Amino acid sequence: MINRRTFGKAMALGAGAAAVSLTGPQTAPVVAAPRSGASTSGGTSASALPDIAPGTHTTFGRMRHVTAGLLNVGYAEVGPAHGPVVICLHGWPYDIHSFVDVAPLLASHGYRVIVPYLRGHGSTRFRSAATFRNAQQSAVALDIVALMDALGIHRAVLAGFDWGSRTADIIAALWPERVKALVSVSGYLITNVEAQQEPLPARAEHTWWYQYYFSTERGRRAMEDRDKRRELCRLVWETVSPTWDFDDATFARTATAFDNPDYADIVIHNYRWRLGLAEGERRYDRYEKRLAGRPVITVPTITLDPERDPFTAPGNGASYRDRFTGAYEHRTLTGIGHNLPQEAPTAFAQAVVDVDHF
Predict the structure, then answer these.
(1) What is the count of structural domains for the chain?
(2) I need a surface site. Which of 8, 77, 116, 236 has the fewest CB within 10 A?
(3) Cα 4 from chain centroid?
């Protein structure tokens, strides 16, 4: 799911941010005013998008596929073929349906919206059985660069959450020429494996229970079992999005993406690698070395914090503000949990449109 953040963020979790109510009433999202230092430079002001209720749309229609790097990537595409491109990137344990309301909103504003399944999810497949099922962060980021190449997309707005935020952050940091602008939920999520060896306060460690579960063979076996992994993933949904009143059908639509034959291998490797318990591949060493230095992101950026996500620290993004050196704005969405684009699609889509006008 999410990379462990700075020690300050962990201290906030330890102080009780993780102990959110699981039964609070649904609250309409409220976007906080930009904090001091937010960018107001560049571009013309963007027009407001129409407000739609979460769950207005349920499907994308016909899926597409393209050979891209190590993968045959399954993706949804919405909007005019020659419109400015937005690539929306999902997290774990989610899939492309996190953007099922976001995509048509952006398409109606003239954007060509690409929503790919990440490796190990949905209809995305490895091209070779011999390829190591690697989920280290730079490998996933290079998948998206390869997708852009395969589709003839030189630059795009990247927008994501969870694994998707990390992937978008990495591309913006290492290949800024490919990123027109960035929307990153939870801010700067680039992983430093060595830094993650330091213990956190007990309550913060408790919040990361699934990471430690996945470090065991018992956790691997749970992810390999269709019923057990669905039960586990649904528990994560309920815990990290305590005000999202999703129904069985909504979860079931996403859970089909977990039936990918490489799903368990990819999920387990991702979390073990982040904890320093699994090796990556030498081909990615040069990228990981640069990422370990916490490179700054220079492209125009809006960061979004979901207030009810137990991984969100107080401070309006202060813990990662210094990692963004270009035009910048931070927004906090009150009453919203971890799956921000599906819980608050209008606010997410509006951030995309706004950052494109910085």
Answers:
(1) 1
(2) 8
(3) 14
pTM given for the model = 0.89
On the question of a cis peptide bond just before residue 93, with omega within 30 degrees of 0, the verdict is yes
Backbone angles phi, psi at 166, to 5 degrees: -60, -45
Three-state SS at 228: helix
CATH code of residue 111: 3.40.50.1820
Collect the ranges in the chain with pLDDT lower than 50: 1-30, 32-44
How far apart, in Å, are the Cα atoms of 157 and each of 76, 105, 160, 190, 223? 16, 15, 10, 18, 33
The answer as to whether 1 is a domain residue is no
Q: Is residue 306 assigned to a domain?
A: yes
pLDDT value at residue 45: 57
Tokens (6 digits) for 305: 């914090």
Rounded CA-CA distance 192/291 in Å is: 7
Q: Phi and psi of 46, rounded to 5°? A: -85, 150
Residue 1, pLDDT score: 45
Smallest Cα–Cα separation from 5: which of 123, 140, 159, 169?
A: 169
C-alpha torsion sign, points 188, 189, 190, 192: positive
**Distance, CA of 182 to CA of 179 (rounded, Å):** 7
Give the Cα separation of 162 and 3 in Å (integer).
Answer: 8
CA dist 297 and 311 (Å) reads: 22
Domain that holds residue 107: 7-355
Confirm whether 184 is domain-assigned.
Answer: yes
Q: Is residue 342 part of a domain?
A: yes
